[in-house]
Amino acid sequence: MWELRSTSFWRAIFAEFFGTLFYVFFGLGASLHWAPGPLHVLQVALAFGLALATLVQAVGHISGAHVNPAVTFAFLVGSQMSLLRAFCYMLAQLLGAVAGAAVLYSVTPSAVRGNLALNTVMVS
C-alpha cells in the first residue's frame, strides 16, 4: 500500500495509460482503409511494430512499457511486480485501449471508420 503514496507509481500508471492509448490509436488507425484498394498486411505490421518501438523508447524508463495486460500478467506470475501494481497497470492499460479506440472513432470520417478494423467472420 505504500506504493499508492509514491509519485513514481502514479507516473508509471499514467505512462501505461497513455502508452496504450497511443498504441491502439496508431495501430488501429493504420488498419483502416484510408485509400481505395487492398490493405497491405506489411503496412499494418510495420505500424504496430514502429508504434510499440517508439512507445518503449518514450515510456520504457517510466513504467517498463508493458502496454499489454498479458505482459503485465507475465511479470506478476514471474514475481517481478506487486499485485497492486499489476492490477493498476492492467486497469490503466484497459482504460487506455478504450480511450484510444474512442479517440480514433471520433476523429475518423464514417466512410473510413467502417467497423474500426474489427476482425469479422465472412459467411458465404
Automatic annotation (TrEMBL):
InterPro entries: Aquaporin-like, Aquaporin_transptr, MIP, MIP_CS. PROSITE patterns: MIP. It catalyses: H2O(in) = H2O(out). The keyword Glycoprotein does not apply. Pfam families: MIP. Gene3D superfamilies: Glycerol uptake facilitator protein. The keyword Cell membrane applies. It comes from the Eukaryota. GO terms for molecular function: structural constituent of eye lens; water channel activity. SUPFAM superfamilies: Aquaporin-like (SSF81338). The chain crosses the membrane at residues 12-35, 41-62, 83-107. Keywords: Cell junction, Cell membrane, Eye lens protein, Membrane, Transmembrane, Transmembrane helix, Transport. Aquaporins form homotetrameric transmembrane channels, with each monomer independently mediating water transport across the plasma membrane along its osmotic gradient. Specifically expressed in lens fiber cells, this aquaporin is crucial for maintaining lens water homeostasis and transparency. Beyond water permeability, it also acts as a cell-to-cell adhesion molecule, forming thin junctions between lens fiber cells that are essential for maintaining the ordered structure and transparency of the lens. Belongs to the MIP/aquaporin (TC 1.A.8) family. Homotetramer; each monomer provides an independent water pore. Two homotetramers on opposing membranes can dimerize, forming a cell-cell junction. Interacts with CALM; the calcium-calmodulin/CALM complex interacts with the cytoplasmic domains of two aquaporins, leading to channel closure. Interacts with BFSP1 (via C-terminus); prevents calcium-dependent inhibition of the water channel activity. This is Lens fiber major intrinsic protein. It comes from Prolemur simus.
